Amino acid sequence: MVQIAVLGHGTVGSGVVEVLRKNHGSITKKAHDEIHIKYILDLREFPDLPYADKFVKDFSAIENDPEVDIVVECMGGLHPAYDFVKACMLKGKHVVTSNKELVATKGAELLKIAREKNLSFLFEASVGGGIPIIRPLYQCLAANEVYEIAGILNGTTNFILTKMIREQMSFQDALDMAQKLGYAERDPSADVQGDDSCRKICILASLVFGKHVYPEQVHTEGITNITLEDVEYAESLDGVIKLLGRVKKLEDGHLSVMVCPAIVGRSGQLASVEDVFNGILVRGDAVGDVVFYGRGAGKLPTASAVVGDVIDCVKRLEYKKYLYWEDGEKGYVKDYRETSSRFYLRLKASDAQKVLDAAKVAFGEIQEAHRANAPSDEVAFATAEEIQESKLEQVLSQWEQDGTQVLGCIRLFDY
Ligand SMILES: NC(=O)C1=CN([C@@H]2O[C@H](COP(=O)(O)OP(=O)(O)OC[C@H]3O[C@@H](n4cnc5c(N)ncnc54)[C@H](OP(=O)(O)O)[C@@H]3O)[C@@H](O)[C@H]2O)C=CC1
Ligand SMILES: N[C@@H](CC=O)C(=O)O
To answer: Where, in this chain's numbering, is NADP(+) bound (predicted)?
Structure first.
């Protein structure tokens, strides 16, 4: 019998317990051993649960119990999650976590400890909720030189955007719903400001390219400035707005990594990913394009990934399969201002035609965008060519000085 402890009994932790209890028989067969939950750590009391006797409030009971083989961390946040996970590993316990903030920030260090101590440190649920993506990347696609990953990596924001686009629901109402459904982070600003997607693209980039990419190296924009007007203009360009995380390997060996709202073409591979679903496009030199799709958040989908890791861990208590990446370094991720994209711009100017003429001079060919009942002082267009970010900043700053107001600026990506 393998004894485990679950840290945190919120959305994910309670889902993990539920799945382990509900599917106990089949999980035992697949793990070739019985998995027994010895402790559940939480700050709250759960006296009415049939497993109320397992709750503890003192972490040291778990840390110091040599019978606990695997610790499943579902508390979230960096502290005390990092301190607890590290302490458990130093005591020789394997760790499974759903905590992307932990992996994106401390992954290289914790993977090093795992290797030194001959332990598993697994985190399938940290990216894409219930979608298998970590294991396919380091196992099934290991033959490839992966050169690009782009994905809708956050269920909450995709849910909000879908509600705004399909039902004209307000941003706040959609966010409230996502919180009630257990999709959002404890502090939902991490979802809507892009930090959650940033952590996830950091994990994927670190795993695929072998060197830690830290969240502070990644230019990150959220969806808080996206309006229903932008949604309508995007439709006229035959596109749809999605929050994307993207990493590309550049020819000089550096990475371009970014999180931002983007207009993707309706016929592209990510446009139809709606609601809480995530879609992750991986480009490999042998396989070509592969898209992973499924529920990116929520209690049971996430528990599915966590429990899958627990089973894998139990099967490998003796023979580890190491995940690994090195510490990162300054300059590894290219300054986003040196990269280029196509852009959609929405502007307010007293002389709209003058702005369109100036746009053609600055950016070359443009495609005008339209929406019903647009005021006469509003113009919107997409550039046909890619523009370097630093050049765009210069042009927009000059226009603002000349009295043109930038109401919207969104990249266009070909996925
Ligand atoms: N929700 C989702 O769909 C997904 C979440 N994740 C990740 O999984 C992790 C957990 O998320 P989620 O379950 O949604 O979060 P919740 O806030 O629902 O659950 C966290 C639980 O941990 C408890 N907790 C927090 N700190 C401590 C502590 N110091 N000691 C004991 N218990 C503690 C909380 O107790 P209390 O409430 O009393 O503070 C709460 O019960 C996060 O890292 C999240 O990013 C990953 C994929 C999907
Ligand atoms: N808040 C996250 C939860 C899963 O990672 C999301 O909405 O995607």
So the answer is: 7-14
- Type of residue found at 335: D
- CATH fold of 339-413 reads Alpha-Beta Plaits (3.30.70)
- Ligand 1 near 341 CB (within 6 A): no
Q: Would you say domain 134-297 falls under CATH 3.30.360.10?
A: yes
| Omega before 188 within 30 of 0, i.e. cis | no
Q: Confirm whether 200 is a catalytic residue.
A: yes
Q: How far apart are CA 172 and CA 332, in angstroms?
A: 37
Name the strand (E) or helix (H) holding 382.
Answer: strand 378-383
Please, which pLDDT band fits residue 168 given cuts at 50, 70 and 90? Answer: confident
At the topology level, CATH places domain 2-127+300-315 in Rossmann fold (3.40.50)
Asked if 33 and 101 touch (Cβ cutoff 8 Å), the reply is: no
* Amino acid at the residue 280: I
Q: How far apart are CA 34 and CA 40, in angstroms?
A: 17
Chain centre to alpha carbon of residue 174: 19
d(CA 158, ligand 2 centre) in Å: 10
Handedness of CA 340, 215, 75, 72 (dihedral sign): positive
Q: Looking at this predicted complex, what is its ipTM?
A: 0.99
CA 191/CA 179 separation, integer angstroms: 11
Q: Where are the beta strands (DSSP E) in 61-138?
A: 68-73, 94-97, 121-122
When pLDDT is cut at 50, 70 and 90, the band that residue 254 belongs to is: very high
